[in-house]
Amino acid sequence: MGRKIVIGLNLCPFAKPVFIKNQIKFVISEAKNPTELTQHFLQELNFLTGIEGDDTETTILVHPFVLQDFGHYLDYLDYANDLIYQAGLEGTFQIASFHPDYQFEGTEPTDIENYTNRSPFPMLHILREDTLEKAIKTYPDVEDIPANNIEKLKELGLETLKKLM
Q1: Nearest by Cα to 114 from 72, 81, 146, 156
Q2: Domain count, the chain
Q3: Is residue 163 included in any domain, yes or no?
Q4: Residue 26 CB: number of other CB atoms within 10 A?
Q5: What are residue 97's phi and psi, to 5 degrees?
Q6: φ and ψ at residue 13, rounded to 5 degrees
Q7: Which residue pairs, CB below 8 angstroms and at least 24 apart, start in 26-32?
Q8: What pLDDT, in 10s, does the model give residues 57-90?
Q9: Owning domain of residue 50
Q10: Which of 13, 17, 22, 123 has the most other CB atoms within 10 Å of its CB?
Q11: Quick check: is 15 in a domain?
Q12: What is the rounded distance in angstroms from the CA atom of residue 99 to the CA atom of residue 77?
């Protein structure tokens, strides 16, 4: 899904370079509850804190067995952000969130813009803020990325998009 949609459609222009350089760590968590997921999340924060971005830029923590309910996922996302703050890592890391039922506030479940953050499984994407800031400074019209992504998905159409997922 990521290669076809995120990179193939260039939904995140910052993803392709780190993907090509093999700097994305993919972790499939076997966690069955939020407590176990928290252990994995903290392990990944510790891992990223102890390694240079040239080696591993980011971690995508996929957790298929916990937080399938989008409301519970959002609650956990708040908690995970609190963990970053409590660890003194605010400004160092941030989380990009993806979920099979992702829905932006003020949208209907079937609105195509929700698919910019949909994924086959719930996942937490831990990003280095300094790298993100550098990418934002070098990318033209970064503020247009969300609107451009929605337009790309509208052109593609919901049925085609679902087949790609």
Answers
A1: 146
A2: 1
A3: no
A4: 11
A5: -110, 140
A6: -65, -15
A7: 26/59, 26/60, 26/62, 27/59, 27/60, 27/61, 27/62, 28/62, 28/64, 29/61, 29/62, 29/63, 29/64, 29/65, 29/66, 30/65, 31/63, 31/65, 31/66, 32/65, 32/66
A8: 999 999 999 999 999 999 999 999 999 999 999 9
A9: 23-140
A10: 123
A11: no
A12: 11
Tokens linked to 33: 């509850």
67-70 LR contacts (CB < 8 Å, sep 24+): 67/34, 67/37, 67/99, 67/122, 68/100, 68/122, 70/99, 70/101, 70/102, 70/103
φ, ψ for residue 5, nearest 5 deg: -100, -60
* Cα 3 to Cα 101: distance, rounded to the nearest angstrom: 20
> How much is the pLDDT for 4?
67
CA distance 96 to 26: 14
Residue 52 phi/psi, 5-degree rounding, is: -75, 150
Q: Is residue 113 part of a domain?
A: yes
What DSSP assignment string belongs to 4-67?
IIIITTTSSTTHHHHHHTT-EEEEE---SSHHHHHHHHHHHHHHHHTS-TTT--EEEEE-TTS-
Q: What are phi and psi of 93, to 5 degrees?
A: -130, 155
Categorize the per-residue pLDDT at 132 as very low, low, confident or very high, splitting at 50, 70 and 90. confident
Domain assignment present for residue 158? The answer is: no
